Please model this.
Amino acid sequence: MPPSNREGSTLFRTKNPVGLTTPASERRSFYRDELLKHWQCLEQQRESYSEKAITDVEAALTRLLADVDRLCARKDGDVLVSRLLRKIDGVTRLSAWSDPKKHH
Model:
């Protein structure tokens, strides 16, 4: 089960002083939000996948949420996290649900 917004904001909080936002902290928050959206989408499609597939994707999402600060600090962090999000999207298909160009 995905962490709730309350849990997500506590467990995966950016280590910036209150009220201080930086482009880097906003980017990390964006990635966390996207990962949580994918997790929620996966939950809604749970019956469509095997328990192993669900477990594997949940484990990947958990690791990514825990490591997003470290990954974003890398020189190629944005590229890496974006690539991982696209791979997860291959399972959840979240972008297909929210892409206005795909609506008729």
About this structure: Residues 42 and 92 are 5 Å apart (CA to CA). The radius of gyration is 14 Å.
